[in-house]
User: Fold Cytochrome c oxidase subunit 2 from Rhizobium laguerreae.
Amino acid sequence: MVIGGISIWAGVTFLLLHAARHRREAWPAEKAGALIAWGGVAFPTVVLLLLLGYAVWLMPAIRPWNLLAAKDGAIEVTGEQFWWRIRYPAVGDQPAFETANEIRLPVGRPATFSLKATDVIHSFWIPALGGKMDMIPGRTNFLTLTPTRTGSYRAPCAEFCGASHAYMALSVVVMEEDDYNAWRSRLAHGQASAADEGGQLLQRHGCVGCHSLRGLQIAGQTAPDLTLIGVRLSIGAGALANTPENIARFIRSPSSVKPGAKMPAFNMLPEDDIEEIARYLGGLK
Assistant:
């Protein structure tokens, strides 16, 4: 793409400089016609066809053609206003599990994503890994990416989706195979203790009506899963660093952090309860 773009830029620049030269005689109509035919039709047509051929040749590497096979092992990513629901499928003896706002991948292994949206159009894009795909309500799109180096990467929503579009980002962590398997096993089997004071407060104040947290009696389905939330790099889909202080801030007034967030403010709770819930959630690792 860079080579093609440079070729077109060089050609247009040459024509501009050539046309700006002082000439005493006019160009013959035959020469002008040849310039238009070769420079204005043949050259861009050949360059664009080559770029199109290259893009089509690349497509099997980023788009799974066997959708039935892709569905079996795909990581399901659903765009919500304004967060990301992530569901990992069952693998071997490890059950399926759900998390939010963070994807972890093994280095060097292709990862297929099943992309959906529940409300408005979002767009899935991990710039460091390549590829971009719209997430459209009522439709499932598939995208395959292969991370080639370890590290942590930011993945913004690439389609305007509302007031907190700028605060809707994924954390993507690419790990060595052994580290990834250990993380996946921990997430798949993670449980929270309902006996802890923080867990009791979550239930008493109705948090589990929307949020799910494995180990508690009630599992809500309309808000992010909080199981082992302390492992994540951020909270609020990248809006804040994951610290107990920021968790407490989000509980008090979500809309001050993310305008348009559907979670109501809980600043009416006793401050001790807010801090205990934040400490409890931050320690779920």
Summary: The mean pLDDT is 88.
